[in-house]
Amino acid sequence: MDRQPEGVVRRPEDSVAEAQALLDAGKPFHAHEVFEDAWKSGPEEERGLWRGLAQLAVGLTHAARGNVTGGVRLLRRGAGAVEEWAVVVGRPLPYGMDLAGVVTWARELAAEVEREAAAVDAVARAPRLSGRTVGG
Questions:
Q1: pTM reported for the whole predicted model
Q2: 20 to 30 A Cα–Cα from 65, which one of 14, 25, 54, 123?
Q3: What tens digit of pLDDT does each residue of 86-113 get?
């Protein structure tokens, strides 16, 4: 599987759009690499958000590969990190992302993966990063 180039500095909006396209294409690990670039190159105060999103993408990667324990653990860890950004009242949604929806998606997927103990379809279960609809 080809990897994304590492260390690419993108505008945050471009990171979101590129990661969404990769998630929609069933390439959550590649989306993780986009989020990781944003985490490493972005402002210090946003690193927790991007790191949490990267964890969610890796969680989906593990879940799609049938690694139940790793998938559940990373989906829940990432949801906790992203939730810290989602719950601040009055803070605008960063870069148009529906973080509350992403957290709900991650927790529901983690519960499903834990319950079913089977690999999931990464395309069918890809999250919607923006808007009010979440994949799956």
A1: 0.88
A2: 14
A3: 776 556 668 889 999 999 999 999 999 9
**Separation between Cα atoms, residue 103 and residue 129, nearest integer Å:** 10
d(CA 118, CA 89): 37
The tokens describing 129, both together, are 């990063």
* Tokens describing residue 5: 């180039």
Q: How far, in whole angstroms, is CA 131 from its chain's centroid?
A: 15
Phi, psi of 85 (to 5 degrees): -85, -30
Distance, in Å, from the CA atom of 19 to the CA atom of 53, rounded to the nearest integer, reads: 10
Alpha helices in 42-67 (DSSP H): 47-64
* 131 burial via Cβ count (<10 Å: 0-12, 13-18, 19+): exposed
